[in-house]
Amino acid sequence: MDHNIILLFGGDSDERLVSVASAQAMAQAIGCGKLWFWHKDGPIFDIDYNDLIAHEEPFTSEFIPKTNRQIFANISQAISSKLSDNHVFLLGVHGGSGENGELQQTLEEAKRPFSGSNAKASRIAFNKVATKECLLGYQIKMAPHVVLETTSQQRLQKTITEFCQSHGDCIIKPVCGGSSLGCFFVRGLLEINAIAAQLAELKPQPFLLERVINGREITVGVFEDDNGPRGLPCTEIVVDSNREFDYQGKYLGMGTKEITPARISENLAREAQRLAVTAHAALALDGYSRADLILADDGFYFLETNTLPGLTKTSLVPQQLAADGISMREFLEGQIKIALDKVVTAERSNQ
User: Fold this and answer.
1) Could you report the per-residue pLDDT of 115-150, keeping only the tens digit for each?
2) Coil, strand, or helix at residue 88?
C-alpha cells in the first residue's frame, strides 16, 4: 500500500484477548508495516508478524511478546512519537479506554489519522444510557430501563425487585462494556438477593437494568464507502435453550449458532438495516459499526451499537462483509481511506 500503517491492538480492557484475534485477522488481510501491542499494564511493544500469527487460542490465553521490544512506556508516548509520524492508526482494540473515546482523544490531539469514530461519538456510543438518550426522537423502539449504582446491596435489591415486579424478566449489564462480559440475567425474584450481593462486591460503577425483550437476536453491521453508510446482511444468533449469548458462546461457539444472512424476510432485513444505519448516523459514527437488535412480536428493539466491533475470522462483521462480497482487505483499505480523508477535512475546516 502507498501509506504507512500502525495496527494497534491489545489494551487494558477485558476484551483485550478478542483484540489479539482481531489483529491476527487484520494483519493477515492487510500486511501491516508496524504491529504495536498495547500491554494491559501500559507499555507498547513492537511485535513481529510471525509472533502475532503464531499465538494460539487468543480468546482464552494472554498474548505475551516473545522478545522484549518495548518501545514506549505508555500509549500517549507512542502516539506522539516521531515513529508514528506520517502513519495511520488501524485500530484493532476493543472496549475500555481503546473504545470509550480516551484513545481517540489522544489520537486527535496528536493529529494522527485513525480508523473508527471520533472521540465524542465514541464516548456516547460506549455508554448505553447516553446512546439511548441520543436516539430518543427517532423511530427506534428501546426497552425500559433504570440505572443501578453498585454502592449499596440493600438499595440494589429494592430497585431490582421493584423493576422486575413491573417489567418481568430483566438483564443487568455494565453501562460501559461489551463482549457479553459482566451481564446478569434475572429470571425470577428468588435470584435478586444473590445478584445484588455480587454487584455490591464490584468496584463502584453504573449498571443498566433493562427489561428482557423476548424474540430473535439480530445483529447488523454498517459499512461506509464513497456512497455513505449502508447496512450489511443481517446475522441471526440462535442460542441453545440452556444458555445465554455470553463470551463463550460468542467467541468459542459454545451453545450458539450464527446464521448469515439471517433467515428473515427481505422487508424485515431492510428494516433492521435502516435501524442500524439510523443509529450510526444519529450517533455521528464513522467508518463502520454494528447494531444489536431483538426482533419481537411487535417489531425490532434496539439494544446497543458497537463502534469497534470484533474483526476476528469468526466475528459477525467479517461474516456479513463476506456475505456482501467484500473482502477483509477491501474493507480495511476503505477504513484507512476514511481515516485519512477525515484528517484532510479537519485541516481544511481549521484554515
Assistant:
1) 999 999 999 999 999 999 999 999 899 999 999 987
2) strand
Contact 116, 307 (CB under 8 A): yes
Would you state the pLDDT for residue 267?
Answer: 98
If you ran DSSP here, which 8-state letter would residue 15 be given?
T
Residues 188, 243 within the same domain: no
Hey, is 121 helix, strand or coil?
A: helix
Domain boundary, last residue among 307, 328, 345: 307
Q: What is the pLDDT of residues 46-73, one digit of tens each?
A: 999 999 999 999 988 999 998 779 999 9
Whether residues 132 and 179 share a domain: the answer is no
CATH at 30: 3.40.50.20
**Are the CB atoms for 285 and 121 separated by under 8 Å?**
yes
Residue segments in the chain with a per-residue pLDDT below the cut of 70: 1-3, 32, 177-181, 241-255, 344-351
Host domain of residue 74 = 4-115
- The SS3 of residue 244 is coil
Residues 179 and 218 in one domain: no
Residue 284, domain CATH: 3.30.470.20
CATH number at residue 182: 3.30.1490.20
Count of domains for the chain: 3
Per residue in 24-41, pLDDT tens?
999 999 986 799 999 999
User: Which long-range contacts link 338-347 to residues 24+ away (Cβ below 8 Å)?
Assistant: 338/115, 338/224, 338/286, 338/287, 339/88, 339/89, 339/90, 339/113, 339/114, 339/115, 339/287, 340/3, 340/88, 340/113, 342/113, 342/118, 342/286, 343/111, 343/113
Do residues 229 and 279 both lie within one domain?
yes
The whole model's pTM is what? 0.90
So what's the pLDDT on residue 245? 43
